[in-house]
Amino acid sequence: MNHQLVLVLDFGGQYNQLIARRVRECNVYCEVKSYQTPIDEIKKLSPAGIIFTGGPNSVYLEESPHIDPEIFRLGIPVLGICYGCQLMAYSLGGSVSSANTTSEYGKTVTYFDRSCRLFDGLPDQGITWMSHTDYIDNPPEGFTLAAHTDSCPSAAICNPDKRLYGLQFHPEVLHTENGLSMLRNFLYLVCGCTGDWDMGNYAQTAIQEIREKVGDGKILLALSGGVDSSVLAALLSKAVGKQLTCIFVDHGFMRKNEGDEVEAAFADWDVNFIRVNAADRFLSKLVGVEEPETKRKIIGEEFIRVFEAEAKKIGQVDYFAQGTIYPDVIESGAGDAAVIKSHHNVGGLPDYVDFKEIIEPLRLLFKDETRKLGMELGLPDYLVWRQPFPGPGLAIRIIGEITREKLAILQDADFIFREEIAKAGLDRDIHQYFAVLTSMKSVGVMGDGRTYDYTLALRGVTTTDFMTADFARIPYDLLAKISSRIVNEVKNINRIVYDITTKPPATIEWE
Ligand code: XMP
Fold first, then answer.
1. Residues 224, 195 contacting (CB under 8 angstroms)
2. Residue with the nearest Cα to atom 16 of ligand 1?
C-alpha cells in the first residue's frame, strides 16, 4: 500500500474513531492506535502526521496517560486535541491547571489568529465545541497562543517551526464550525498530505486482510438484507468467493414482503445462500416477554443457535462474520461509553458455539462510510440506500409482548408509511422511518360505532451518524394522507401519532 498514513493516538477520548473518520473524509488514510504504542513502532510506520485524542484525565496527575516526549522530536507534525493539547503543552514544559471557575462545556464563541496555519482561510471567529475543566495557563517555550475564548486564553497553541499544534476544543464534532477545515488544514498545509486515499483503497486493503486472515477457511455470514450485512456480503464474496455461506435467518420480524425481497436480491450472486424460515421458533421463545433488552437477548441467542445448526449441516465453518459498524460498537459499551442498548450483533459468541472466531470487517466504519464502500464494491443502489433496520426487526417495534396479530398489523401499517414516503420522494432525505405499534389502546369512533383499538406511532429521523438524530419534518399533508390510509386500510388501528423527539434524549427505536 502506497499511501500516506496519519496516526491517531488514543488517550481514551469519546471521539477517537470520529477523528479517524474525519481524517478519512479528507481522503487521508488513518489508523487509531493506543497512546502506549512504542516510539520505535511509530517511527517504522513513518506517519505524515500524528493526532492525539482527548481523554477524561488531568495531565498533571501521575496516573494519567503520558507520552514519551521523544515523539515531539521525530520531526513529525503533531496535533493535540483537548487532553492531547494539554498533554503536549505539559510534556514540553508548559503548565496546565484546573480552571474550576471557568470550565467550558458546549458551544463556545472562539476567536482565532488566522496567521496560524490551522485557521488559514477561515473566519476569525466562530463556534467551537468545548469540554474541559483544565486549561493551559502557560504554554511551553516556542509556542504562541493562536485562539482564545472569553474565559480561556489558550483555545489553541502552535509552534509552527516544530509543526506542533494543539486545540483545546474538538474540531472533529459537527458543532465546531469549520472543524473539518481545521483538520484539513492540519493534514494538507502542515503534514503535506496529498489526499491519496479513498474508499476504493479501503476495499482493497480490507479484501487483502480478509484473505490473509481467513486463508482457505469457511465463513458464515448473517445476512439480513440490510445495508451493513449486504456490504459485508459483497466484501467477503470479493475476498473469498464460495468459501462464504450467507445465511439469511428469517426470524419472522422482517417488514412486509422483505424476506422474499432479500432472497431475490441475492439469487444471482456468486455465494452460497441459505434462507432459514425460523419465525415459529423465534415467536415461541418470545411468548410473554415484554422487556426490550430481554427480547434482544433471546433473539440474539436464537440467532446464534440457528447459525450453529446451519453450520453443522454445511460441515466445518471457521469464521462467523457480522456486519457490526462503529455506532453499534460504542453504543454496546465497548471502551468507556455507557451501555444504552445491547445491539445483539455485538459482543462475542457464547461458549457453546464452536466457530473459531468472529470477524467484523466493518467495525470501524460509520453508516455513510459503509454505504460508500458498498458503492465502491458495485452493489445496486436499492441495497446501498436501504434504510437501516435493526437486527431484532419488528420485535423491538412492538412495545411489550409480541403476537402474530400485532406483527401483521404493524407490517401492514409500516408498509403504507414507507410506500407514501417513497412516493413523495423523501426516502433518501429521511434517514430512517418506520411505524411502531405502541400496544396502547384508546377509544375511537368509526361509522356509528365505538372502537377500542391500537395507537400506532410513526417515527422519521434525519441523522448523519445515528448517534444523534432530529425528527424529520414530514409535511402535514403527507402525514394526513398516511394517517388516513392506515386507519382505513389496516384493521385494529384507530389512532396515529408522530414522534417529535430528538436523540438524545429519546433513541431512534422505541425499545
Ligand atoms: P437507537 O434506537 O439506539 O438506534 O437510537 C440507533 C440505530 O441502531 C439501530 N438499532 C439496532 N440495530 N440491533 C441492531 O442491529 C439492535 O438491537 C438495534 N437497536 C437499534 C436503529 O435501528 C438505528 O438505526
1. no
2. 343
Candidate list 116, 152, 172, 251, residue with the active-site label:
172
pTM, entire model? 0.70
Our answer to whether residue 82 is catalytic in this structure is yes
Give the model confidence (pLDDT) of 362-372 as tens digits: 988 888 899 99
Residue intervals of the chain classified under CATH 3.40.50.620 are 199-384
Q: What is the second-level CATH architecture of the domain 199-384?
A: 3-Layer(aba) Sandwich (3.40)
Interatomic CA distance for residues 430 and 436, integer angstroms: 16
Rounded Cα–Cα distance for residues 467 and 464 (Å): 8
Indicate whether residue 466 lines ligand 1 (CB < 6 A). yes
C-alpha cell at 36: 502506549
For residue 388, which of 335, 295, 460 has the smallest C-alpha distance? 460
- CATH 3.30.300.10-classified regions of the chain: 403-498
Nearest 10 degrees: Cα torsion 299, 304, 306, 310 = 160
Rounded to the nearest angstrom, the distance between the alpha carbon of 116 and the centre of ligand 1 is: 42
507 Cβ closer than 6 Å to some ligand 1 atom: yes
Over residues 224-252, the pLDDT tens digits come to: 888 899 999 999 999 999 999 998 989 99
Q: Whose CA is nearest to atom 3 of ligand 1?
A: 507
Structure-block grid coordinates of residue 203 = 476495499
CATH class entry, domain 403-498? alpha beta
CA distance 121 to 163: 18
Residue 179 Cβ < 6 Å to ligand 1: no
Strand partners, 469: 503
Contact by Cβ (8 Å): 207, 241: no
Residue 329 near residue 21, CB atoms below 8 Å: no
Ligand 1 nearest-atom number relative to CA 506: 5
For the domain made up of 5-190, give the CATH fold.
Answer: Rossmann fold (3.40.50)
Q: Which of 132, 170, 251, 344 is catalytic?
A: 170
Distance (angstroms) between ligand 1 centre and the Cα of 509 equals: 6
Q: Could you tell me the distance, in angstroms and rounded to a whole number, from the CA of residue 396 to the centre of ligand 1?
A: 9
- Would residue 172 show up in a list of annotated catalytic residues for this protein? yes
Fill in the amino acid letter for 495. Answer: R
**Mean pLDDT of successive 10-residue segments in the chain (511 residues)?**
88 87 94 93 96 93 94 97 96 88 84 97 96 90 96 95 97 95 98 93 92 94 86 94 91 92 79 93 97 95 84 81 80 47 47 71 88 90 84 96 97 98 94 96 93 98 88 98 98 98 95 97
- With a CB cutoff of 8 Å and minimum separation 6, the contacts of 422 are none
